[in-house]
Amino acid sequence: MSKAKLEVGDKAPAFELPRDGEGIISLKSLKGRKLVLYFYPKDDTSGCTREAIDFNALKKDFAKAGAEIIGVSPDPVKSHDKFKAKHGLDIALIADEAKTMLEAYGVWTEKSMYGRKYMGVERTTFLIDGAGKIARVWNKVKVPGHAEEVLEAAKAL
After folding, report:
1. How high is the pLDDT of residue 71?
2. How many degrees, rounded to 5, is the angle at CA 52 between CA 134 and CA 45?
3. CB atoms within 10 A of CB 152
4. How many C-beta atoms surround the C-beta of residue 115 within 10 A?
5. Considering the entire predicted model, what is its pTM?
6. 10 lies in a domain?
7. Is 91 among the domain residues?
8. Whose CA, among 7, 26, 29, 77, lies 20 to 30 Å from 20?
9. Radius of gyration of the chain (CA)
10. Is 110 within the bounds of a domain?
């Protein structure tokens, strides 16, 4: 079960996990830069695909605002690679198969569909400042217009 939700002003939990392609991404390696961490349930599902495409389309604008975009889901690296190739994505995707990062950020939660309870990722986005503090949190994200809203917040940070 997830810990309490992280809030603005909290220190972002450290992470070091495998990413699409090859390699590892850690919070420490991004120190000094703004970071948009968006947590999503599953590669290649309709909402998650739309969200990834929206963030990807604004990647240059986020870069101008000094912000890096990273998507996180419990899918394995191979799934991320296929997802990126299929949709021409150029943003980093982290694989958290053990769900340690998902739990640390409080987004691995009990959900229910048609009366059945199960554990899953609650679509959530964090904007982290260059000092590693959480500057903004979007819980239970609705995808339409979300990437644009995060971009405006990143520009203002």
Report:
1. 98
2. 120
3. 11
4. 5
5. 0.95
6. no
7. yes
8. 7
9. 14
10. yes
Q: Token match 């599953």: residue?
A: 42
The number of folded domains in the chain is: 1
Residues 6 or more apart in contact with residue 72 via CB below 8 angstroms: 17, 37, 38, 39, 40, 93, 94, 96, 101, 102
Does residue 21 carry a catalytic annotation? no
Q: Is the pLDDT of residue 1 over 50?
A: no
Burial per residue of 9-48, b for 16 or more beta-carbon CB atoms within 10 angstroms, e otherwise:
eeebbebebbbbeeeebebeebeeebbbbbbbbebeeeeb
Query: Does a structural domain hold residue 5?
Result: no
Q: Which member of 6, 27, 35, 48 is catalytic?
A: 48
Domain span at residue 78 reads 18-23+31-156
List all residues 6 or more positions away from 129 whose beta carbon is below 8 Å from its beta carbon: 34, 135, 157
